[in-house]
Please model this.
Amino acid sequence: MLTINKLSSSIGAEILSLDASEAVTAAVGEEIRNGLFENLVLVFRNQSLTVEQQIRFTDSLGQIEAAWDTSNTHPQDRRLQIITNAGRAKTSQRTSSQHWHTDRSFVERPVLATLLHAVDLPPFGGDTLFADMRRAYETLPERLQDKIANLSTYHSYRFQFLNLRSMRISEAIAQAEADQFPDTIHPLVRTHPFTGRKSLYLNELCLSGIVGMDKEEAKPLLKELYAHALQPKFTYRHKWREGDLVMWDNPSLMHRVDEIPQDHPRILHRTTIAGTVPT
Model:
Protein backbone atom coordinates (compact mmCIF):
# COMPACT_ATOMS: atom_id res chain seq x y z
CA MET A 1 0.00 0.00 0.00
CA LEU A 2 1.33 3.43 -0.96
CA THR A 3 2.10 6.12 1.61
CA ILE A 4 0.59 9.40 0.41
CA ASN A 5 1.44 12.65 2.22
CA LYS A 6 -0.62 15.78 1.59
CA LEU A 7 1.38 18.78 0.35
CA SER A 8 -1.30 21.41 0.93
CA SER A 9 -4.79 21.70 2.35
CA SER A 10 -6.20 22.03 -1.15
CA ILE A 11 -4.39 19.88 -3.71
CA GLY A 12 -1.13 18.00 -4.07
CA ALA A 13 0.36 14.94 -2.39
CA GLU A 14 3.74 13.21 -2.45
CA ILE A 15 4.53 9.52 -2.70
CA LEU A 16 7.86 8.58 -1.15
CA SER A 17 7.69 4.80 -1.23
CA LEU A 18 7.53 4.01 -4.94
CA ASP A 19 10.30 3.44 -7.48
CA ALA A 20 8.81 4.37 -10.84
CA SER A 21 11.70 2.69 -12.67
CA GLU A 22 10.31 -0.72 -11.68
CA ALA A 23 7.28 -2.41 -13.23
CA VAL A 24 4.00 -1.38 -11.60
CA THR A 25 1.40 -4.01 -10.75
CA ALA A 26 -2.25 -3.49 -11.68
CA ALA A 27 -3.15 -3.02 -8.01
CA VAL A 28 -0.50 -0.33 -7.48
CA GLY A 29 -1.52 1.35 -10.73
CA GLU A 30 -5.10 1.57 -9.47
CA GLU A 31 -3.87 3.05 -6.16
CA ILE A 32 -1.92 5.70 -8.06
CA ARG A 33 -4.89 6.62 -10.24
CA ASN A 34 -7.18 6.85 -7.22
CA GLY A 35 -4.60 9.01 -5.44
CA LEU A 36 -4.37 11.24 -8.50
CA PHE A 37 -8.12 11.75 -8.81
CA GLU A 38 -8.36 12.57 -5.11
CA ASN A 39 -5.33 14.89 -4.84
CA LEU A 40 -5.10 16.10 -8.48
CA VAL A 41 -1.30 16.46 -8.26
CA LEU A 42 1.01 13.59 -7.27
CA VAL A 43 4.74 14.02 -6.66
CA PHE A 44 7.00 10.97 -6.78
CA ARG A 45 10.28 11.94 -5.10
CA ASN A 46 13.84 10.86 -5.88
CA GLN A 47 13.18 9.22 -9.24
CA SER A 48 15.92 8.40 -11.74
CA LEU A 49 14.24 7.30 -14.95
CA THR A 50 15.45 6.36 -18.37
CA VAL A 51 13.25 7.25 -21.33
CA GLU A 52 12.12 3.64 -21.55
CA GLN A 53 11.26 3.51 -17.84
CA GLN A 54 9.17 6.71 -17.95
CA ILE A 55 7.32 5.38 -21.01
CA ARG A 56 6.60 2.09 -19.25
CA PHE A 57 5.46 3.78 -16.03
CA THR A 58 3.15 6.14 -17.90
CA ASP A 59 1.69 3.33 -19.98
CA SER A 60 0.95 1.33 -16.82
CA LEU A 61 -1.41 4.10 -15.66
CA GLY A 62 -3.38 4.61 -18.86
CA GLN A 63 -3.05 4.77 -22.62
CA ILE A 64 0.11 6.71 -23.39
CA GLU A 65 -0.08 8.97 -26.41
CA ALA A 66 2.40 10.52 -28.80
CA ALA A 67 3.39 14.13 -28.12
CA TRP A 68 1.36 16.56 -30.24
CA ASP A 69 4.33 18.97 -30.29
CA THR A 70 6.85 17.20 -32.53
CA SER A 71 9.41 20.03 -32.41
CA ASN A 72 11.30 18.53 -29.48
CA THR A 73 10.40 14.86 -29.11
CA HIS A 74 13.03 12.51 -27.76
CA PRO A 75 15.06 10.70 -30.45
CA GLN A 76 14.58 7.39 -28.61
CA ASP A 77 10.80 7.57 -28.48
CA ARG A 78 8.45 10.25 -29.87
CA ARG A 79 5.97 9.59 -27.07
CA LEU A 80 8.33 11.49 -24.75
CA GLN A 81 8.89 15.20 -25.22
CA ILE A 82 11.86 17.19 -23.97
CA ILE A 83 10.74 20.39 -22.24
CA THR A 84 13.66 22.80 -22.19
CA ASN A 85 14.50 26.49 -22.13
CA ALA A 86 17.50 25.92 -24.40
CA GLY A 87 17.47 28.21 -27.40
CA ARG A 88 14.78 30.48 -26.01
CA ALA A 89 15.44 34.12 -26.86
CA LYS A 90 16.15 36.20 -23.78
CA THR A 91 14.05 39.01 -25.22
CA SER A 92 11.01 36.81 -25.91
CA GLN A 93 7.68 37.77 -24.37
CA ARG A 94 5.75 35.63 -21.91
CA THR A 95 5.92 32.00 -23.04
CA SER A 96 2.89 29.79 -23.59
CA SER A 97 3.59 27.78 -20.44
CA GLN A 98 3.44 30.94 -18.31
CA HIS A 99 -0.27 31.34 -19.10
CA TRP A 100 -2.80 29.48 -17.00
CA HIS A 101 -3.87 26.51 -19.09
CA THR A 102 -4.90 22.88 -19.20
CA ASP A 103 -2.99 20.70 -21.60
CA ARG A 104 -4.16 20.31 -25.17
CA SER A 105 -7.71 21.58 -24.77
CA PHE A 106 -7.68 22.68 -28.44
CA VAL A 107 -8.36 19.08 -29.57
CA GLU A 108 -11.51 16.95 -29.36
CA ARG A 109 -10.00 14.55 -26.78
CA PRO A 110 -7.71 16.52 -24.44
CA VAL A 111 -5.07 14.90 -22.24
CA LEU A 112 -6.21 13.08 -19.09
CA ALA A 113 -2.89 13.22 -17.20
CA THR A 114 0.53 14.75 -17.73
CA LEU A 115 3.78 13.46 -16.21
CA LEU A 116 6.94 15.60 -15.95
CA HIS A 117 10.27 14.20 -14.79
CA ALA A 118 12.94 16.67 -13.65
CA VAL A 119 16.22 15.92 -15.46
CA ASP A 120 18.10 19.20 -14.95
CA LEU A 121 16.93 22.15 -12.87
CA PRO A 122 18.07 25.78 -12.43
CA PRO A 123 19.08 26.86 -8.91
CA PHE A 124 15.93 29.01 -8.67
CA GLY A 125 12.78 29.81 -10.64
CA GLY A 126 10.60 27.61 -12.80
CA ASP A 127 8.08 26.64 -10.10
CA THR A 128 4.87 25.10 -11.45
CA LEU A 129 1.59 26.41 -10.06
CA PHE A 130 -1.66 24.44 -10.11
CA ALA A 131 -5.20 25.76 -9.65
CA ASP A 132 -8.02 23.47 -8.50
CA MET A 133 -10.88 23.97 -10.97
CA ARG A 134 -12.99 21.45 -9.06
CA ARG A 135 -13.14 23.49 -5.85
CA ALA A 136 -13.35 26.67 -7.89
CA TYR A 137 -16.58 25.42 -9.46
CA GLU A 138 -18.01 24.03 -6.23
CA THR A 139 -17.52 27.35 -4.41
CA LEU A 140 -19.09 29.54 -7.12
CA PRO A 141 -22.19 31.46 -6.05
CA GLU A 142 -25.32 29.52 -6.99
CA ARG A 143 -26.41 32.25 -9.41
CA LEU A 144 -23.16 31.83 -11.33
CA GLN A 145 -23.36 28.03 -11.32
CA ASP A 146 -26.84 28.29 -12.79
CA LYS A 147 -25.73 30.83 -15.39
CA ILE A 148 -22.87 28.69 -16.76
CA ALA A 149 -24.43 25.24 -16.29
CA ASN A 150 -25.17 24.66 -19.97
CA LEU A 151 -22.65 26.96 -21.65
CA SER A 152 -20.02 25.76 -24.11
CA THR A 153 -16.80 27.45 -25.14
CA TYR A 154 -14.57 27.63 -28.20
CA HIS A 155 -11.04 26.27 -27.76
CA SER A 156 -8.66 27.40 -30.47
CA TYR A 157 -5.00 26.77 -31.20
CA ARG A 158 -5.09 30.10 -33.03
CA PHE A 159 -6.27 32.12 -30.02
CA GLN A 160 -2.82 32.70 -28.47
CA PHE A 161 -0.83 29.58 -29.21
CA LEU A 162 -0.24 30.31 -32.91
CA ASN A 163 1.51 33.61 -32.27
CA LEU A 164 3.53 32.30 -29.31
CA ARG A 165 4.62 29.17 -31.20
CA SER A 166 5.55 31.28 -34.24
CA MET A 167 7.96 33.28 -32.10
CA ARG A 168 9.23 30.28 -30.12
CA ILE A 169 9.68 27.74 -32.95
CA SER A 170 8.89 29.17 -36.39
CA GLU A 171 5.96 30.69 -38.23
CA ALA A 172 5.91 27.84 -40.76
CA ILE A 173 5.79 25.10 -38.10
CA ALA A 174 3.16 26.96 -36.08
CA GLN A 175 0.93 27.43 -39.13
CA ALA A 176 1.31 23.76 -40.06
CA GLU A 177 0.25 22.82 -36.53
CA ALA A 178 -2.71 25.19 -36.67
CA ASP A 179 -3.88 23.51 -39.88
CA GLN A 180 -3.94 20.17 -38.02
CA PHE A 181 -6.04 21.51 -35.14
CA PRO A 182 -9.35 23.11 -36.14
CA ASP A 183 -11.27 24.93 -33.42
CA THR A 184 -13.28 22.71 -31.10
CA ILE A 185 -16.11 23.20 -28.59
CA HIS A 186 -16.06 22.01 -24.97
CA PRO A 187 -18.43 22.53 -22.02
CA LEU A 188 -17.56 25.39 -19.68
CA VAL A 189 -18.42 23.08 -16.77
CA ARG A 190 -16.75 19.71 -17.29
CA THR A 191 -17.68 16.41 -15.61
CA HIS A 192 -14.68 14.25 -14.70
CA PRO A 193 -14.73 10.99 -16.69
CA PHE A 194 -13.80 8.86 -13.65
CA THR A 195 -15.05 10.65 -10.52
CA GLY A 196 -18.12 12.40 -11.93
CA ARG A 197 -17.22 15.64 -10.11
CA LYS A 198 -17.70 18.90 -11.97
CA SER A 199 -15.05 21.54 -12.57
CA LEU A 200 -14.57 24.76 -14.49
CA TYR A 201 -12.89 24.12 -17.82
CA LEU A 202 -10.88 27.27 -18.51
CA ASN A 203 -7.69 28.00 -20.47
CA GLU A 204 -6.03 31.39 -20.98
CA LEU A 205 -4.16 30.06 -24.02
CA CYS A 206 -7.00 28.47 -25.96
CA LEU A 207 -10.43 29.51 -24.69
CA SER A 208 -11.39 32.07 -27.30
CA GLY A 209 -15.08 32.67 -26.57
CA ILE A 210 -18.44 31.41 -25.37
CA VAL A 211 -20.84 29.81 -27.81
CA GLY A 212 -23.88 32.02 -28.38
CA MET A 213 -22.31 35.15 -26.87
CA ASP A 214 -20.50 37.98 -28.60
CA LYS A 215 -17.03 38.79 -27.29
CA GLU A 216 -18.09 41.87 -25.35
CA GLU A 217 -20.80 39.90 -23.57
CA ALA A 218 -18.50 36.96 -22.79
CA LYS A 219 -15.55 39.03 -21.59
CA PRO A 220 -16.87 40.08 -18.13
CA LEU A 221 -18.20 36.58 -17.41
CA LEU A 222 -14.87 34.93 -18.23
CA LYS A 223 -13.01 37.60 -16.25
CA GLU A 224 -15.18 36.85 -13.21
CA LEU A 225 -14.61 33.10 -13.54
CA TYR A 226 -10.83 33.44 -13.87
CA ALA A 227 -10.66 35.85 -10.91
CA HIS A 228 -12.58 33.39 -8.75
CA ALA A 229 -10.71 30.29 -9.90
CA LEU A 230 -7.22 31.73 -9.44
CA GLN A 231 -7.56 32.76 -5.80
CA PRO A 232 -4.54 31.60 -3.76
CA LYS A 233 -6.72 29.30 -1.64
CA PHE A 234 -7.30 27.11 -4.70
CA THR A 235 -3.65 26.87 -5.75
CA TYR A 236 -0.57 24.77 -5.01
CA ARG A 237 2.95 25.88 -5.91
CA HIS A 238 5.36 23.07 -6.72
CA LYS A 239 9.01 23.88 -6.07
CA TRP A 240 10.91 21.34 -8.10
CA ARG A 241 13.57 19.09 -6.59
CA GLU A 242 16.05 16.98 -8.49
CA GLY A 243 14.46 13.64 -9.32
CA ASP A 244 10.84 14.78 -8.96
CA LEU A 245 8.28 13.05 -11.15
CA VAL A 246 5.07 15.10 -11.08
CA MET A 247 1.74 13.85 -12.41
CA TRP A 248 -1.47 15.86 -12.63
CA ASP A 249 -5.14 15.54 -13.53
CA ASN A 250 -5.85 17.84 -16.50
CA PRO A 251 -9.67 17.77 -16.44
CA SER A 252 -9.64 19.23 -12.90
CA LEU A 253 -6.75 21.70 -13.03
CA MET A 254 -5.13 24.64 -14.73
CA HIS A 255 -1.39 25.13 -14.36
CA ARG A 256 1.38 27.50 -15.34
CA VAL A 257 5.13 27.83 -14.85
CA ASP A 258 6.96 30.74 -13.21
CA GLU A 259 9.63 32.57 -15.15
CA ILE A 260 12.71 30.42 -15.77
CA PRO A 261 16.20 31.97 -15.57
CA GLN A 262 17.61 31.98 -19.10
CA ASP A 263 21.21 31.40 -18.04
CA HIS A 264 20.47 28.06 -16.38
CA PRO A 265 19.21 24.91 -18.08
CA ARG A 266 15.80 23.52 -17.16
CA ILE A 267 15.14 20.14 -18.75
CA LEU A 268 12.12 17.97 -18.04
CA HIS A 269 10.78 14.87 -19.77
CA ARG A 270 7.05 14.90 -20.48
CA THR A 271 4.68 12.03 -21.20
CA THR A 272 0.89 12.14 -21.37
CA ILE A 273 -2.07 9.80 -20.92
CA ALA A 274 -4.91 9.96 -23.43
CA GLY A 275 -8.17 11.46 -22.26
CA THR A 276 -11.83 11.45 -23.25
CA VAL A 277 -14.15 13.87 -25.02
CA PRO A 278 -15.21 16.42 -22.35
CA THR A 279 -18.85 16.26 -21.23
About this structure: The radius of gyration is 18 Å. The first helix runs from residue 26 to 39.
